[in-house]
Amino acid sequence: MDVRRIIIFAVSNPLPMNRHSAGKYILLKLAKAFDVDLNHHQSSKSYTAATYENFTLVKSQVYMNESGKALQSFLRDQRPSPEDSLVILYDDFELKTGKIRLSPMKSPESHNGLSSCQSVLNKMDSNLLKTSIFKLGIGIGPKPKDSNKLTMSSWVLSKFKPNEIEDLDDMSLRLVADYLDFISDENIQSVTDQTARVNKIFAKKIQRGEYT
């Protein structure tokens, strides 16, 4: 049986690291753990990519609301097989920093980066893209109390606090790595149908202190 490729794409901005770029932060940490350099491997104007075993990491070089352009360029260049899986990393302010959530992509998406990706995916040739697609939310919350659209825009562009960086490094990164291994090892249809069950499995592991 051929090993499925897991494509890990992060939506983000090409600006200094902040909450809104949590997906890229985790992607770069994965690249370091895999000992691959996303700055000196296969690249285009809109993305850079590097592969470790069956994991292909893709870093967007465009702004958040144009993330779909980078994803489209990669998919057209690489032409993933139907057996492959696409996992999109994004920042999730509904989750506490350190928490992770796996979900199928839905339409419409409220997150600008996800919405851009979804728009592109909906228009792509079905013969070009038949992979299973997931989104993996990286918690950046809790969001400020009594926040509004203006204050939220400012907050998501703010830097993480030192203790939050520790949560990302110690908990989020380990969880993401384990989620990706799970997706890689499991029958893809069972993962697609049971993302809620998968999240519960990892929630119980967290409760047991396996990620502290």
Automatic annotation (TrEMBL):
GO MF, one annotated term: tRNA binding
Keyword flag tRNA-binding: yes
Pfam families: Pept_tRNA_hydro
SUPFAM superfamilies hit by this protein: Peptidyl-tRNA hydrolase-like (SSF53178)
Coiled-coil parts of chain: none
Xref: InterPro entries: Pept_tRNA_hydro (IPR001328), Pept_tRNA_hydro_sf (IPR036416)
UniProt keyword annotations, A-Z: Hydrolase, RNA-binding, tRNA-binding
Keyword DNA-binding: no
Protein name: Peptidyl-tRNA hydrolase
The organism of origin for this protein: [Candida] railenensis
Source organism phylogeny: Eukaryota, Fungi, Dikarya, Ascomycota, Saccharomycotina
